Structure to design on (439 residues):
């Protein structure tokens, strides 16, 4: 019987701060980074599981250490047993009582669990010869529900309610799968909207986005209200009245500031305001949503677990739920969140961009379409034109839609040369001579 024999971590960082790619009001100089994991076995097939947690530079070494702390829960175990019951495997990590103390179920350890769980799902999908979305969408309602920990959720979503949601979607699965393979999944782009970009660059990239078939773009806001009003005016003049413009404050404001700022932008018809305040402030989000309607409130990329998502939904605090593939504890917890969103009738538009997040979340949205919500109405996946070339099976967008991946796995595997060239601090990209040139 094959067992797990390798648990290999890498600190991979990209110097995106040099061109202000990824810049926003709260994170002005990010270096997009991956705390990266490879899980190997002694099976004859030679397949590996790849996963990662996304960070923006300093602290990536801490995230790598957190992932490494989970190695003893994997090494030496029987591969078939671990992958056969991914619900029990998920609980193995989350229920480690000593590591749990560091959360519980939040922060660096939860993100570490996401890297390990996602790497195991990558391996499971590769062994099945299927892309992850297709593997999940082919599972029975009972198998999917067995992946979910309903502890802390049953006042909002019970196992029986989750089964009913999945069973209701079951009859149309085959037709939606074919539609997905033919048409892909709607995308929107954040590429024009980084806060550090000049007005000229914003206008050029916004115009190009429309020409490329996008029906929604996003601008970062929250630095200076007058600048934001000017930039929104330029964007609206460039894309016209029919293109949705989402805005993203990246947690910048207090509740009252958020309300006033969004009202200043309202004449330019923003589609949503994303992360208007602290991701932990459920009641603050609810107050903002009530005050700024009909502008929608979107949040989720920094929401720490399914329990906070539950409360946001219960409190009527959001119009758009934004899952993140590597913030909560991996695929299993994201399935729980997708089921919660379906129960409350709230559309899911994942957070992406970063390092590899586009590659991962496409699978979750596509699974949601086929097997959970059954619709793409008001659902789009974020797209950012950064760093896809570092992945063996990069995500692709054509005519404003994600091209449905067909390669087996979770699309998480990086090009081997990337792991050495961008290794921090000793990779060639971070060598002293290179750093002096870029300074």
């Amino acid at each position: 019987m094959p067992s797990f024999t390798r648990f290999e971590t890498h600190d991979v960082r990209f110097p995106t701060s040099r061109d202000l790619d990824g810049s926003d009001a709260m994170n002005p100089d990010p270096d997009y980074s991956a705390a990266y994991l490879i899980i190997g076995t002694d099976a004859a097939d030679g397949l590996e599981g790849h996963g990662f947690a996304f960070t923006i530079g300093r602290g990536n070494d801490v995230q790598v250490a957190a992932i490494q702390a989970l190695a003893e829960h994997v090494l030496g175990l029987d591969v078939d047993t671990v992958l056969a019951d991914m619900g029990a495997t998920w609980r193995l990590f989350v229920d480690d009582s000593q590591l749990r103390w560091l959360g519980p179920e939040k922060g660096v350890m939860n993100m570490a669990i996401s890297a390990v769980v996602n790497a195991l799902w990558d391996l499971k999908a590769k062994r099945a010869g299927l892309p992850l979305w297709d593997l999940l969408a082919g599972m029975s309602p009972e198998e999917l529900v067995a992946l979910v920990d309903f502890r802390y959720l049953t006042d909002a979503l019970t196992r029986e309610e989750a089964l009913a949601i999945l069973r209701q979607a079951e009859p149309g699965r085959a037709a939606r799968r074919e539609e997905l393979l033919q048409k892909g999944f709607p995308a929107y782009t954040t590429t024009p909207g980084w806060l550090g970009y000049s007005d000229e660059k914003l206008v050029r990239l916004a115009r190009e986005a429309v020409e490329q078939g996008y029906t929604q773009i996003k601008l970062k806001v929250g630095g200076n209200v007058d600048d934001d009003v000017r930039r929104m005016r330029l964007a609206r003049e460039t894309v016209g009245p029919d293109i949705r413009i989402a805005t993203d404050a990246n947690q910048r404001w207090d509740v009252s500031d958020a309300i006033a700022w969004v009202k200043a932008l309202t004449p330019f018809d923003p589609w949503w305001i994303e992360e208007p305040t602290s991701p932990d402030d459920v009641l603050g989000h609810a107050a903002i949503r009530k005050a700024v309607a009909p502008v929608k409130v979107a949040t989720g990329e920094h929401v720490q677990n399914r329990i906070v998502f539950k409360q946001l939904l219960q409190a009527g605090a959001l119009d758009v739920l934004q899952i993140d593939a590597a913030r909560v504890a991996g695929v299993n917890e994201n399935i729980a969140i997708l089921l919660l969103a379906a129960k409350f009738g709230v559309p899911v538009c994942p957070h992406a961009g970063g390092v590899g997040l586009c590659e991962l979340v496409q699978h979750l949205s596509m699974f949601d379409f086929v097997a959970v919500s059954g619709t793409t109405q008001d659902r789009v996946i974020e797209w950012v034109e950064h760093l896809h070339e570092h992945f063996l099976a990069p995500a692709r967008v054509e005519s404003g839609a994600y091209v449905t991946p067909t390669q087996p796995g979770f699309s998480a595997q990086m090009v081997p040369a990337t792991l050495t060239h961008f290794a921090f601090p000793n990779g060639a990209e971070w060598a002293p001579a290179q750093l002096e040139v870029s300074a």
Observations:
- The chain has a mean pLDDT of 96.
- The longest strand covers residues 4-13.
- The chain is about 40% helix and 15% strand.
- The chain has two domains: 4-129+418-438, 166-416.
